[in-house]
Amino acid sequence: MSVIVNGERRELPEGTSVADAVSGATGRSGPETAGVAAALNGEVVRRADWSATTLQEADRLEVLTAVQGG
Fold first, then answer.
1. DSSP result, 5-57
2. Which residues of 18-54 are buried (b: 16+ CB within 10 A; e: fewer)?
3. How many whole angstroms separate alpha carbon 40 and alpha carbon 25?
4. In this predicted model, what pLDDT tens digit does every residue of 2-52 receive, in sequence order?
């Protein structure tokens, strides 16, 4: 299926979860995703729901990472 992740079209297998897509986009999973947020079609997805939220054809997922600096 074709979805947009951070503005780029990607082909992902049917049944891909938000958690899977975040891991693919950041290279991090599980506890390593602290400071990462996900928005699906303009709506924030709670981290607790990432594994249960399945992406659909033409969805738009934005994966955001908090950055500190000065």
1. ETTEEEE--TT-BHHHHHHHHHS--GGGGTTEEEEETTEEE-GGGTTT-B--T
2. bbbbbbebbeeeeeebeebebebeeeebeeeebeebe
3. 14
4. 999 999 999 999 999 999 999 988 888 887 888 899 999 999 999 999 999
d(CA 67, CA 52): 27
C-alpha to C-alpha distance for 32 and 68, rounded to whole angstroms: 16
Q: In whole angstroms, give the CA distance from residue 19 to residue 24.
A: 9
Q: Residues near 69 by Cβ (< 8 Å), separated by ≥ 6?
A: none
Q: How far apart are CA 65 and CA 48, in angstroms?
A: 17
